[in-house]
Structure formats: C-alpha cells, structure tokens
Amino acid sequence: MTDVRSADPAVAEPAPPSAGPEVGRTGPGAGLRAGAEAVLPAVGILVALAAWWLIARLELVHPAALPPPGDVLTAFVDKPAQLLEHTWDTTLEILTGFALSVAAGVLIGLSLASSRTVERMFTPLLVAVNAVPKITLGPLLVVALGWGQKPILTMVFLLCFFPIVLSTATGLTTTPADLAELVRSWNASRWQAFRKVRFPAALPQIFVGLKVAMPLAAIGAVIGEFQAGESGLGYVITQYAGVGDTATAWAAIMLVALVSILLYSALLLIERFALPWVRETTSSR
C-alpha cells in the first residue's frame, strides 16, 4: 500500500535568516567604524596644525602674516575673556542671520515650486542678486542701515538665502514618481499631498542647502563685522591686524573656524534625528 502524504505549505517551517549582515552591523566592525569616525576629524586637524607649524618654522610665509601656532595659542591665553565675548557676539549674529535666511529661503523656494510663472519671473532676479560680490555691498549697507547688527545680519542673509531657496525649490519639484502616483490614487488635496508627501520628500534636499548655507553665514558675519562691526571676531581681526598683532588676529580666525565646525556639526545632528529614514534608505560608504 502506497503511503501518500500531502505537503501542507502552511506547516513548512521557513529557513532561518542568515545572521551574517546583522553580525556585520553590530559586531566589532561597527565599533571600529564608529571609533574611526570620531578620531579622523581630530587627525585631520593635527595634520593641518603640523603643516602650519612646519611652514612657520621654515619661514615659507613671513611671520607677520602667518605666526607660529604657539604664538596664536599664547595670544588666546592672554586674552581669553575678550576673545570669548566677541565669539559669543559673532555666534549670535550667525544664528540670527541663518534663521532669517531659512525662514525667507524656504518660503521663496515654496513660491517658486508652486508656480512655473513665478519661477520664470523671479529666478533670473535671484541669480543676479546672488552673483553680486557681497563685499562690494558692505559700504552701501553701512550708509543705508548704519553701524551695528543691521548691516551684519543683512550681509549674512544675502550670503545664505540663495542655496536654501535653490534646494527647497529643487526638493519640492522632484518628488519621486511613485509617491506622486500614490497621492493621486488617494485623491488627496494639495495641502494633504504637500504635508504628507512632497515636503517630507523634499527635506533631504533642503538640508543640503542648509549645510551649504551654514558656513556662508559665518563668512557673512565676519564680512559684515569688517565693514560695520563694533564687536565680534571680524572686528577683532581688523583691529589687531591693523596694529601688527597678527597672532591675536589669527586666534580670532581660529575661533571663527571653530564656531563654524560646531554649528555645522549641530546641523548634522539635527538632520540625523529629524530624518532617520534617510540613513536607512540610502547606501553607506
């Protein structure tokens, strides 16, 4: 008698998943990669400092223009309270001008993305404004707005807003086709499509513009302080360089660089927490 047994697919047990990729993500290799990511920026800074020390030691550049790193450190140790006070002033100007640029840039980018007529009407004007060398506007801003923070914040705004406008408009007009088709299948309103699909899909592109604009904000603040500042690191650079104390001027320059690095890193953290799906859906190097 033949024993016939029916194979029930519901009873069949699936094969256990391979644990290889998970081990690669959570094993010692992940810890080594995380450690390398933390150490490599410090190594890059040390290499730059070593090159600076070597150039100053060999006097490839005149010491009046590029003092040794030790002299710059001494200048900071001699005037810590003064330099930190001016650093705080510059940081506030960077953050305020950047916030104004973000608010205006996103709104302008939204307007360009919502209407092809508006885009064709105002894009050439925006490109022309961005093409003007901003340092040439410094004296005119002082005449129009006087001394103090107004011309400085205006300079920051003029340098920052265009990358934010461009990235916002690009992100809102390049919604993935499958997401756009999904919205149409839902019969969603324009507001629902914008809130649920278009704006979230545009956020990675918007953050690209923000990351480009953040260092430009520091540049704009320093240029504004050159022209109209009564405080800030740009003011310190012009004052001490004018009397031949280039070591203190370079200490202020290093503080500008440090502030830019910290603010850029903070923006990266905000992007990581605000857009957790980006790292999960894109390939890592």
From TrEMBL:
* Alphabetical list of CDD domains matching this protein: TM_PBP2
Q: Which InterPro entries match?
A: MetI-like, MetI-like_sf
Region span, Disordered: 1-28
Task: List, alphabetically, the SUPFAM superfamilies matched.
Answer: MetI-like
What topology in the membrane does the UniProt record assign? Multi-pass membrane protein
An example of a Pfam family matching this protein is BPD_transp_1
Q: Which residues form the ABC transmembrane type-1 domain?
A: 87-271
Q: Which domain of life is it from?
A: Bacteria
Q: What is its main location?
A: membrane
Regions that span the bilayer: 38-55, 94-113, 125-147, 153-180, 201-223, 249-270
Entry's localization field: Cell membrane
Entry keyword annotation includes Metal-binding: no
Hey, which family's this protein in?
Belongs to the binding-protein-dependent transport system permease family.
User: What protein does this entry describe?
Assistant: ABC transporter permease
Question: What taxonomic ancestry is recorded?
Answer: Bacteria, Bacillati, Actinomycetota, Actinomycetes, Micromonosporales
